Amino acid sequence: MTLAIEVNAVSKTIKKREIISNVSMKVRAGEIYGFLGPNGAGKTTIMRMMLNLVKPTAGTISMSGEVVDGKSAYLKEIGSIIEYPVFYERLTVEENLVLHCRYMGIEMKDGVDRMLEKVGLKGAKDQLISELSLGMKQRLGIARAIIHQPRILILDEPINGLDPIGIREVRELLLMLKEQGMTILISSHIVSEIESIADTIGVIQEGRLISEVRMEELKEGSRSGYIIGVKDAGTASQILSEVGRVERVNDRTIIVFNSVLSRHELNRLLVVGGVEVERIERKESNLEDYFINLLKEGKRHA
C-alpha cells in the first residue's frame, strides 16, 4: 500500500487551547479520502497544515513521502481549495487561469479552454470574476486547482454553492481524476456525496480523529436489519439472539442485525415462541447513520 498523505500524531495548540489532538491518518495513493466532521471540528486546520500554511505543535505530516516543512518542494504536486477560492475580481475567468499558469511556471496554450470545458465554464471564460455566482467561482477554483495536473488534490467543501447538476458534475469529475491516478482528499458536510465517491472516510470531532474506515468494510459490516415491535422485548431478544445480533431499544422494540432470515421467518420464530408481534420493518443503514452515531458516541465519551 503506497501512501500519498500520512499524518502522524499531529496536534495544534493556539493560545494554550489544543484544537487538534494527536491526529493520525493515512490517505492511499490513487484513492479518494472523505474527511467528515461538523463545522469547527478541525478539518480545515489539518488541511492547512498539509499545505504548510499552519505549523503543527507536535507530530509530522508527509506528502508523497516528503515531510512537510518550510523547505518542501512538494507543493508543485498539490492542487487545493481551502475554504472559498479567491480570484482577481477585475480580471476575466480566462485571465485568472492564465495568470495562475504563469505563476506555476507551466505553458497551457489550449489547455485553459479544455479545463474550463471540463468544469462547465467554457461559455464564461470572458466574464469578470465579479460577475460570477458562488457556484461558478467554486467550479473555477477546481479548474485552477487541477490545471497543472497535480498528483494530490485537497478540497475543502468544494461543492459549496453548487446546484444539484453542478454537484453531480463535480462528483463525476473527481471520479474521473481518480481513474487518472490522482489522489483526492475531500471534506464535505454533505455525507451522501462522500458516500458516493470515497474509498476511505475519516471522521473528526473536536480536533480528534474518532474513526478511519474503508468504505468497503463499512458496507460489509452494514447495520442493516429489522426493527421489530413486540409486546415483550425481553423474550423476543432471547429468541432471536441465535439468528442475529439483537439490540433492545425499549420494552417494546428490538432491532435485529446480520440475520439471514426473512421478515416472515423472523415473525414465525417469535409467534412460535409466544411473542405477539406488532410490526416488522426493514432498516437500511448508510454512511450518514454511521457518522451521526459516531458523533453521539464521541460526545458521550468526551
TrEMBL record:
> Which Gene Ontology MF annotations are present?
ATP binding; ATP hydrolysis activity
The superkingdom of the source organism is: Bacteria
Residue ranges of domain ABC transporter in the record: 5-231
Would the keyword ATP-binding turn up in this protein's UniProt record? yes
Which Pfam families would you find in this protein's record?
Answer: ABC_tran
The record's InterPro entries line, in alphabetical order, gives:
AAA+_ATPase, ABC_transporter-like_ATP-bd, ABC_transporter-like_CS, P-loop_NTPase
Keywords associated with the record? ATP-binding, Nucleotide-binding, Transport
Membership in a protein family = Belongs to the ABC transporter superfamily.
Instruction: Fetch the PANTHER family from UniProt.
Output: ABC TRANSPORTER, ATP-BINDING PROTEIN
Q: What is this protein called?
A: ATP-binding cassette domain-containing protein
Instruction: Give the lineage.
Output: Bacteria, Bacillati, Bacillota, Bacilli, Bacillales
